[in-house]
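Long-time lurker. I teach an intro course on protein structure, and each term I like to show students one example going from raw sequence to a predicted 3D structure in token notation. This year I'd like something fresh instead of my usual example. Would anyone be willing to generate the tokens for the chain below so I can use it in lecture? Attribution to the forum is fine with me.
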Amino acid sequence: MKRCTNPALDDSQRRAYLKRLMQARMQDDAVASMDAKIALGEAGPVWWDDGAADCSGLAPTDTPYATWWAKLSQSEQDAGLAPKRKRF
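-- Reply from a regular --
Happy to contribute to a lecture. Here you go:
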């Protein structure tokens, strides 16, 4: 599972961090990429305060969403697990 961007970031902050992330990816700079992901809230300390666990990097079957995941059709599960295609 992937973590989404912190919704508390204002639009200008989010855009600036996304720009940093895209530049880091284009330069193949893993450290700068991780720094930008942390700034966006997609990695690092959790940004939510409801006590929910951070399930980033776990298979859906290994999370509190396992029951929901099991109810999806095979094609829906396959679509959810499909690797992202590299865009050019």
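Some talking points for your students: The radius of gyration is 15 Å. The chain has a mean pLDDT of 89.
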